[in-house]
Amino acid sequence: MLKNKKTVFFCQECGYESSKWMGQCPGCKAWNTFVEETVSTVKKSQGSGKAYEKKQGPVLLSDIRLSEEERQTTNIGELDRVLGGGIVPGSLVLVGGDPGIGKSTLLLQVCRNLAQKGQKVLYISGEESLRQIKLRAERIGKFNENLKLLCETNLENIRGVLEREKPDTVVIDSIQTMFHEEVSSAPGSVSQVRESTNILMQIAKGMGISIFIVGHVTKEGNVAGPRVLEHMVDTVLYFEGDRHASYRILRAVKNRFGSTNEIGVFEMRHTGLEEVQNPSEFMLNGRPADSSGSIVSCSMEGTRPILVEIQALVCQSSFGIPRRTAVGTDFNRVNLLMAVLEKKVGIHLAASDAYVNIAGGMKMTEPAIDLAIALAVVSSAKDIVIPDTVMAFGEIGLSGEVRAVSMAGQRVAEAKKLGFHTVILPEVCRTSVGKETDMTLLYAARIQDAISYIRKIQP
Ligand code: TYD
Ligand code: MG
């Protein structure tokens, strides 16, 4: 075997490779993320890693037959939705997220459901001992004998076990603890993580095993983040959420077998993760009744409308430069909307501090919430109380016009379902929204129209 050792520098954020150290990564613009790693360019022993690749020539597209069993449901509706309708056999799914967000818990629940359906499932952990996993499993519920556990970090051993056991689904928790002997750098380094994923990819495709990989998102340190392997896997899911709030959001960032717009909403309970069937109701919990500076808007997350409360607080600034803060939405967008209010509506905000918040810790960047942000700011600045049965959505352009948004009818229907009486929406959506008999639909062509509505419908 020809061995030739050299060192290169990798960005731990995005995996950018460089022969010398750099302060800022040219790839992802992160600072101080380069770490030196030894890579040995070993001529791999014959056949290694290639054993599963079947040699075949080109095939006619029309000759490829699809089998019936395309997708397997996990019995967790929210996860199936994000995956695009269930697990595609032989796919490699990366589940990323901050440590402690609930990745292991979710995947253990998936294992349980698949085992109950009669699949052979193997949970491989490099982080926790068998007893620790058992303790977690006790909290989640009953498990049957189709689920096996393994504590292992050496990928060659794992490959051997998978060849013997031939499971249908495998969970690798986490990719940052796995290592391959032929790579000389430490587990968690960019080259290890990449090589490990490569091997898992070959196993998934060659043996037709569905593999879930856990990847911790790391802020700093010598552990490579999941972004370095996003391009290798079939599906990338990120688990987000405020660690202080109990709900968690599963979002697809890449999906070779489905849409990337869908989200799944979960709540962390003491018995594991529960699906949240109606996120709007969940998000609006504990909303203040009839107070100024608050209005509900609707954002589409994939095919699902979610209602959120937008809050604004505008007060006199005690400093020369007013303070502006946006939590849960785009800061620049909020500044832009305030500039439109200043210039086009004539509301003086230049000497005011303004704080905008999406209640519940949700992150929403869809322009459809523009109108609600603007109305919340006006409501707080002018102390106009907007009744809590009013919902508003619409995009705002730089000349103060209220622009069309997609799926207006669905947003109105969601508001109706949750007991709202009035919806302020763009004039251009008039044709796309059917006649809702028992809802008051107020159409606004310019932002001024919407402001005059909220002045009129005071409680
Ligand atoms: P975990 O799945 O270990 O996170 P990750 O694998 O992403 O690092 O989740 C750990 C957190 O979840 C921990 O803070 C405790 C909490 N938790 C519950 O609240 N209820 C439960 O039933 C379980 C199993 C965990
Ligand atoms: Mg874990």
Tell me what the structure shows.
The protein has 459 residues and is of the alpha/beta class. Helix content is 25%, strand content 26%. The protein is built from ten helices and 21 strands. The strands form five sheets. A nine-stranded mixed β-sheet has the order 6-5-7-8-4-9-10-11-12. A four-stranded mixed β-sheet has the order 13-14-16-15. β13 (294-301) and β14 form a beta hairpin. It is globular, with a radius of gyration of 26 Å. The termini are far apart. Residues 45-51 have low confidence and may be disordered. The structure holds thymidine-5'-diphosphate and magnesium ion. Thymidine-5'-diphosphate binds next to α2 and α3.
Write a short abstract of this structure:
The protein is α/β, with parallel strands linked by helices and 459 residues long.
Task: Write a concise keyword list for the protein shown above.
single chain, 459 residues, alpha/beta, 9-stranded mixed β-sheet, 4-stranded mixed β-sheet, 10 helices, 25% helix, binds thymidine-5'-diphosphate, binds magnesium ion, ATP binding, zinc, DNA repair protein RadA, Rubredoxin_2
